[in-house]
Amino acid sequence: MPVEAPPGDAQELEDTTEVATLGLEHQAERAKARQGFLLGLPTIVYLLIFFVAPLGFVVAYSFATRTSTGRTELRDFNLDAYARLGDDIIMTVAWRSLWMAVLATLICLVLAYPLAYFISTRSPAVRNMLLVAVMIPFWSNFLIRTYAWRVLLDSDGLVTQGLELLGLGDGRILFTSNAVILGLVYGYLPFMVLPLYAAIERVDWSLVEGARDLYASGWAAFRRVVWPLSRPGVIAGSMLVFVPSFGAYVTPAILGGNKEGLLGSYIVLQFLSARNGPVGSAVSVVVLGVMLVSTLIYFRAGGKNL
Amino acid sequence: MNGTTNGQGPAVELAGVVKRFGDRSGTEVTAVDHIDLTITDGEFFSLLGPSGCGKTTTLRMVAGLELPTAGSIRIHGEEMGLRPPNKRPVNTVFQSYALFPHMTVAANVGFGLEMRKVPASERKDLIDWAIDLVEMGSMAHRKPTQLSGGQQQRVALARALVNRPEVLLLDEPLGALDLKLRQQMQFELKNLQREVGITFVYVTHDQEEAVTMSDRIGVMHEGRLLQVDTPEAIYERPTTRFVADFIGQTNFLEATVASGEEVVLANGDRLRLSSDQPAGSSVAVTVRPERLTVHRRGEAPTDRHCVEGRVETVTYLGNAVVYGIGVDWMHLEVRCPATLAGDRRDVGDDVTVSFEPDHAAVVTG
């Protein structure tokens, strides 16, 4: 430093400027964070009131006490409700729900993969048209569409009559587990098609050519290249079908007739008819847990890029 | 066994091969227009041309990734016809490499062997051989995304060569590499080809690449094969204006054919040059800039052909000087080895440009 520099003065000025800048910087950062929080606030409040709080109630209820009159009281927290989860009836219902969800997911996968493959290999114009077609069912209400199946599956409905004409079936589809599976597959098929399409469409076609060039038959090229590379879509689609199928309520209620109860209707039964809030809550918590674990598996498997 | 031939006849033989692509509106584009071509065993053959000239389509037809509209494609005498790519004795190195991203380098290289059901014990040795061949031994367990462009290129090469194809097809394999790496790979590719003795068919739009590596070059333009010859002949004796212009820089002197042995330049000068064009047809005489010499006016030797002109531009390139010379009926470019500044012609100098008739060629088109 030159000796002629005014002693102290300049140095001091420099220091204060630096300190001031540092402070401003922190203030600016804090203001920015506050701004982001304020922007998110309405939604955060909404979610707290209508999502987090009810969820908390469910969890709390599952440890609560049921009085002899069937009221749920938030005292003497215990694990009684969870102890009941091993009951035969609950296990039967749970296994049936799991089986139905797995079956619906597999059927969706088998139906959706060829369709998604077909769509993703069309020209862009045709592709968009077909994608819109896949999404058309969403334009009308899920409940209404499910009721429509009731008409079709009725003993004198179109589907039943048609099957009978072909010599298939005995005219009893509605209010069976087949009807529930059919309803689930129908309702959730688009959720399988769309992620599969997104995944297959992303596969680089030159890789297939590369495989064919390296002596792979068409089938081998699919099995070794397209299928593994579209796996994120398979996982995403399966999640999107499995999770809502596992806890389905509307479809089994309308098409299954509740003769063979599933978890969704069992929970409703506990709350409304059996007046056993704690057991209903405990089952809900477990179902939530299963879904959470499935979702974690999905993220672990690299499905986050969807 | 699938994917081999009995080895008779030339490596690749195309006869009257046509490929038309039709679009939805019914208009047809002829990508490849009646190509006849014979590539001999062990040759490094390049298909050279600007983008869209049909060279890649031609290669893809040999690979079976595209089917010809008409014509015959034979490999070692065997008609490939509509044979699917997996049943042809060729392998391709793709421009994008097309490495399988979900497999390791070793699995990529072993893919073709696996598909051909080569026993696992043999497979391992072959994979090691191929990976060593391209000096990627330490990377065998990496995924392609963990490799640089040049390394991916080597893996793509190993993946094809490990199958010992009868013909290796390369579709602009160096296109994605930077200049320095590209030059190094050109050298390595040529050595590799000599080492393995496999017929290479190499597609490129880079004339320098084609000239340095190839035994022979086929120049393509608008779906047609214009000239097939050694790099030297293509450079020194082009037969069409397009070929002369595409390979390196050149001067065109407009001319008319006088007879089979003589052409008349636009200024009336007669030049003894043979041509297969009928008398009276208009052609051009092409002379490379480095085949021209600049002299002070009147100092040109009499045994060379001379044209008088004036220096319009002088460009110093370090190792060479390029003169732009205005002749009253055209403009010539002359490239001379760099001389010291005192020995250079200046803008405005009256000069004589000379060349040996041997260094000129008659081109059509």
Task: Give a verbal description of the structure.
- The complex is a heterodimer of chains A (306) and B (365).
- The longest helix of chain A is centred in the N-terminal third of the chain and has 54 residues.
- Chain A is built from 13 helices and 2 strands; from the N terminus they run αββαααααααααααα.
- Chain A has 306 residues and is mostly helical.
- In chain A, a hairpin with a 5-residue loop joins strand 1 and strand 2.
- Helices cover 23% and strands 35% of the residues of chain B.
- Chain B contains 8 helices and 20 strands.
- Chain B is elongated.
- The mean pLDDT of chain B is 91.
- Chains A and B meet through helix 8 and helix 9 of A and strand 6 and helix 2 of B.
Taking the alpha carbons of the first and last residues of chain A, their distance comes to: 59 Å
Global morphology of chain B: elongated
The order of strands across the largest sheet of chain A is: 1-2
Class derived from helix and strand content of chain A: mainly alpha
Helical residue percent band of chain B: 10-25%
Describe the main β-sheet of chain B briefly.
Answer: 6 strands, mixed
The helix-strand sequence of chain A is HEEHHHHHHHHHHHH
What is the β-strand count of chain A?
Answer: 2
Uncertain segments of chain A: none
The overall pLDDT of chain B, averaged over residues, is 91
Portion in beta strands of chain B: 25-35%
Distance between the termini of chain B: 47 Å
- How much of the sequence lies in strands of chain A comes to under 5%
